[in-house]
Amino acid sequence: MASQKKSVGRIDELRGAGNHAYDRRKVIILAIIIIGIAFNGEGTANLSAPGTFEKVIVTEIYYDTYLKGDTDGEFIRIHNPTESSINIGEWQITDGEGVITFPSWANIDAGGSLYLAYNATAFYDEMLQNADFEYGVDSDPTPNMINTYGGVKLANTGDEVILKDEKGEIIDVVIYGNSVYAGAGWSGTPVKDVDEGVILERDRNETTAQYEDTNSSADWDDYRVYVVGQSHFPYETFSFDGNVTVFTSPDSSFIEIANAIDNAQESIYLNVYQFHNFYLMDHIIEAIKRGVEVRIMLEGDPVNGIADEEKYIANQTVTAGGAVRFMIDDEDRGIHDRYAFNHAKYALIDNETTIVMSENWKNTGVPTNNTFGNRGWGVIINNSNVTNYFSGVFFEDWKPESKDSFPFTANDSIYGNKYGSPPPDFVPNRTIPTGNYSHPFNSEIISGEFNISPVLAPDTSLMQTKSIIGMIKGAKKSVYVEQLYIYKDWGTDADPKPNLFLEAAINASRRGCEVKILLDSRYEKEHNEETIEYVRGIATDENLTLEAKLIDDEAMGINKTHNKGVIVDRNRVLISSINWNEYSPRNNREAGLIIENEDVGEYYTNVFLYDWYNGPLAKFGFDTGPGAYPSISGTHNGTIKPNRTITVSKLYTYPCTGTGGHTEYAKIWNATWNATATWKGYVGDWHNISFNNSFTLLAGETYNYTIITGSYPQIHHTSALPTANGWINCTEFIDVNGKKYNDWIPAIKLFL
Length: 752
Description:
- With 752 residues, this protein is of the alpha+beta class.
- The protein has 13 helices and 42 strands.
- A 15-stranded mixed sheet has the order 20-16-15-14-17-18-19-13-21-29-28-27-22-25-26, sandwiched between helices. Strands 31, 33, 34, 36, 38, 39 and 40 form a seven-stranded antiparallel sheet that branches. The protein has a five-stranded mixed sheet with strand order 8-7-2-1-12, with helices on one face.
- Helix 5 (278-289) links the parallel strand 14 (267-272) and strand 15 (293-299).
- Helix 4 (253-262) packs parallel to helix 5 (278-289), helix 5 packs parallel to helix 6 and helix 8 runs parallel beside helix 9 (500-510).
């Protein structure tokens, strides 16, 4: 509501304001006398500054509600941050016009909070929890506050909430909007007004989780928007020793997700923005037939509406015995969605497995044939604690009591088949799209120690010291970003604001990190080009190791780059549904996770660099070029220092003419990792041997090698060899006869 709800005169002394243009002095004087008596039994209002009392603070104010008439939906929340319970009997709250008083027995527990609702029934309808006190009407058995004078009705355009103890001492003050209050308990300008349906909520310190309390608007300037009914899940990190499966789209997403569904024994809970893939549906239906409980949560108003393909899948799922709900918005019927879009993409299986992706379950996002589709990242986490966290999120969003959680319903009396069946003549098109993507990345099961931190929008997505921004701020060496699109600015054209994610990445380059930003070349191309120009300008002006470019989707053979990923220092990876616009982290339900593990980081770094160079990296490998005679087999030890970042999975040995010169064993390593390769004999392409894992050699970093050669490989007879790709040095060569050299370098090529 934009209108002012109050028409009675405000108590100007409480505001510190001047006289009105018209004379209401008699009304004001009478009001002061009555409220002053209510506060402290004297004839003047007591506005003394806080003294040596126990501190209780106001933490939420909901004043611009969705309800018709507005006032019924209002509520105030107070919180006791101390370690002791506090008796608040006869304490009062005023908005400068009315006064409400707590009953004498009222108490607030240590660390506890109380919700004070104008209408407790309306509060429950909106929040799905009971209010602690009711102060405007008597709608249910909720304990009533005493309406001491006039009643408290909060104005949408600006007002005050003043909490006083039984002696009339000010405990806490909050002012917002166009309030002109200048009394005790507040310093500076009012808190900025919020929109309809948004709760004014006090900030918390990200480290201590304590509410900020400086008696100023700085306590209320969190970047998050708190829409009524939204969740408040904390940022947590789960550490475990186990295994995860990493995969990419189009390469291996379908087979990994299908296998996970096929292995489900008890339950599958899926929250996804869009579900169009009939072949994934087949696996879901088979799971239901096995007795697996299936629940699917979908967005009720995606861009371009719910497709008939999705209605068909929902109908088939429900017919088979599963459950499907949509998150909907229908303001005409008093239904307001908690999130602008339910844009998450995750699945939970058997209360122990979590699948998180950047992709929708569409033919492009999880393609049945891996020669076609979008570039996206995904991960399967096998840990019950992680799954329990996401399960809490799923059921919070799913809960049927929420008005915006609407079940699949065919021929609904109100909506017809908007959330129901497709048209009777709909025939599913099961054609499997194909393309020319080379799908070089198999999924991998990685074992080891992991730190997993779920990231939720809007709950934790914009934290400044943790989550996405905190991860980027903690970068020491590198930040690689792959996004569908990035807007250079947030805010509006009239009032632009910095893109917090983008600026964090740019600032990492100012600290000396290598930063690469890769954006899609088809979707939002104009915005992406604007962002690239902006980033390149900063890189040039400040001489930074900072690059931005468009991926060449056509050359890669992919539909588009739909990814929303970040890699920091090659050991922390963000996999999520969060786009880098302002809307996604502030207003949508999004889901992702940050996974900390070097092998996981290595996997996605290889994928990122493949995309960065628009395809196979063999031409960007490390090549010494051909060598010469004399030659003999033996063990080479030395170092490699590439001058550009390269990804490696194979080693080629230049053989002497007419010989079987080859490498029998190779190891490349540094202090934190190693990769090995073993010759398989004179079969197939025996001049090339493959490493057990693909890996990346960073530009400017030094790596060790051990290469054991057989027969007669070509040799560079020098202790140090400069190449177009960097340097390779000989530390020691021991031939098969035991003779040692320090100037024999094998003629090799490292490539993907």
